[in-house]
Specification:
binds 2-oxoglutaric acid, 7-stranded mixed sheet, globular, binds NADPH dihydro-nicotinamide-adenine-dinucleotide phosphate, Rossmann fold, 48% helix, alpha/beta, 17 helices, 5-stranded mixed sheet
């Protein structure tokens, strides 16, 4: 086939839209990747002939199921659960489970698609998957969450396994939910095996998994800054979210001598001009994870801080920005505000938090911009280490895992530079991550023939 006969980006995206009607998040994620991959494969006939991108953008399977559970008032509740197994060319499907009322098939398909590239970038043998349910754990008792998790796993268990598909946590799924789900898997199958990661340390969890995503996003940021002769110390950071990723990102920024000014949740953001230090971060962790309270309560505990109801933190002047809450939480206008306020670098703890238009603003301004699939890969990388530990029946300590995480993030940064260096000192980390992530999966798929 002559190069001019290849399907163009526009035609390809029309097909994606037609096949996935209304799945806006999935279409957005595919578009962002396809822009770079089309350029990369322009003169690479074998990828065209084998329709590699078309195949990666069609999940291997989407499993959808009913989840029935009984609330504390004995009402029967019905939710929908999913597992999207996107691609297992380079290893078992791997990716988190999200419990949030906004979960749809489109959201999970975008996350599983992104995960495929992210997991490839880590260099570890993991394919891409993601799952979840439109269940809202907020305001539910522990007993209700346990019954929901047990019911969810009663269906999910038949689709997963340590060499098949290994889920973990994500929004709304932390240590408590993983414990309930692992307990149910073990009860049904009568097998103790590393079928989930993010487990408690008493039963095979990695000592570094809770910190890994947030710390990793800051290590990625550090690598971007170092590449331009800068570091985190002395810089102000604006962070969104107040969950697992946000609080650990805040902790690492603080440890490296930066000052964190904001955190947020779906109710608004808090701005603490004095800085959110370790003591305050500990309070937030406890308040959000154990008391299960709201971020607005921070201002009662720490006077001097302000709560901005219903707003996002991107208008607060800063040097560094870390979106760590959810997808599409930073739009074009907010990206412009960050640039105008002198922000130097953005490292995404969340998955796809910046809209396509926002990303363009960052690139046009030549701001250092680390997309989630590279910047937040530390979490799944340490999950990969947890899988190895479980298979080998060994345990690495916190210090050793910290060294491995640092090396893994350095390696991911290096791959992004290799494929994203524009030759004028600017690195397009989106392009670098997309191409490096794609190449390994694509070459494995070529080796398998038409499957
Ligand atoms: N946990 C991990 O290891 C990894 C997570 N990620 C990504 O990081 C992000 C955060 O995950 P994680 O910290 O684990 O989740 P958590 O459930 O621990 O925290 C989520 C945080 O985001 C906020 N949030 C959720 N939805 C919205 C919304 N629609 N608008 C505003 N704020 C919102 C929550 O606020 P509220 O309490 O009000 O809901 C909460 O502060 C997600 O994008 C996730 O996919 C990426 C890689 C790995
Ligand atoms: O550790 C895992 O497998 C989950 C990671 C994840 O869901 C993510 O990287 O978005």
């Amino acid at each position: 086939m002559a190069v001019s006969d290849h399907v163009g980006l526009g035609h390809f995206m029309e097909g994606v839209k037609k096949r996935n009607p209304g799945q806006t998040e999935f279409i957005q994620a595919v578009h962002e990747v396809a822009q770079d991959i089309f350029e990369f494969i322009e003169d690479k006939e074998e990828y065209h002939e084998a329709q590699i991108l078309r195949r990666i953008a069609e999940p291997d399977r989407v499993i959808s199921f009913r989840v029935c559970w009984e609330d504390d008032n004995h009402n029967i509740r019905v939710q929908r659960g999913w597992r999207v197994q996107n691609n297992n060319a380079i290893g078992p499907y791997k990716g988190g489970i999200r419990f949030h009322p906004s979960v749809t098939e489109s959201v999970l398909k975008f996350l599983a698609f992104e995960q495929t590239f992210k997991n490839s970038l880590t260099g570890l043998p993991m394919g891409g998957g993601k799952g979840g349910a439109n269940f809202n754990p907020k305001g539910k008792s522990d007993a209700e969450v346990m019954r929901f998790c047990q019911s969810f796993m009663t269906e999910l268990y038949r689709h997963i396994g340590p060499d098949t598909d290994v889920p973990a946590g994500d929004i709304g799924v932390g240590a408590r939910e993983i414990g309930y789900m692992f307990g149910q898997y073990k009860r049904i199958t009568n097998r103790w095996e590393g079928v989930l990661t993010g487990k408690g340390q008493e039963y095979g969890g990695s000592q570094m998994r809770p910190e890994a995503t947030g710390y990793g996003a800051v290590y990625f940021l550090e690598n971007m800054l170092k590449h331009r002769g800068m570091d985190v110390a002395g810089h102000n950071a604006v962070i969104s979210g107040s969950g697992n990723v946000a609080t650990h990102a805040a902790e690492k920024i603080t440890q490296l001598g930066g000052k964190v000014l904001t955190l947020s949740d779906s109710g608004g953001f808090i701005h603490d001009p004095a800085g959110i230090d370790q003591e305050k971060i500990n309070w937030v962790k406890h308040h959000k994870t154990h008391t299960r309270g709201r971020i607005k309560d921070y201002v009662d505990e720490f006077p001097g801080a302000e709560f901005h109801e219903g707003e996002r933190p991107w208008g607060v002047p800063c040097d560094l920005a870390l979106p760590c809450a959810t997808q599409n939480e930073l739009n074009e206008q907010e990206a412009r505000t960050l640039v105008d306020n002198g922000c130097k670098a953005v490292s995404e703890g969340a998955n796809m938090p910046t809209t396509l238009e926002g990303v363009k603003v960052f690139h046009d301004a030549k701001l250092m911009y680390g997309p989630g699939k590279a910047a937040n890969a530390g979490g799944v990388a340490v999950s990969g280490l947890e899988m190895s530990q479980n298979s080998e029946r060994i345990s690495w300590n916190h210090e050793r895992l910290g060294e491995m995480l640092t090396e893994l993030m350095e390696g991911i940064h290096g791959k992004c530079v290799e494929y994203g260096d524009k030759g004028d000192g600017y690195v397009d980390y989106v392009k670098g991550a997309n191409i490096a992530g794609f190449k390994k999966v694509a070459d494995a798929m070529l080796a398998f023939g038409v499957v």
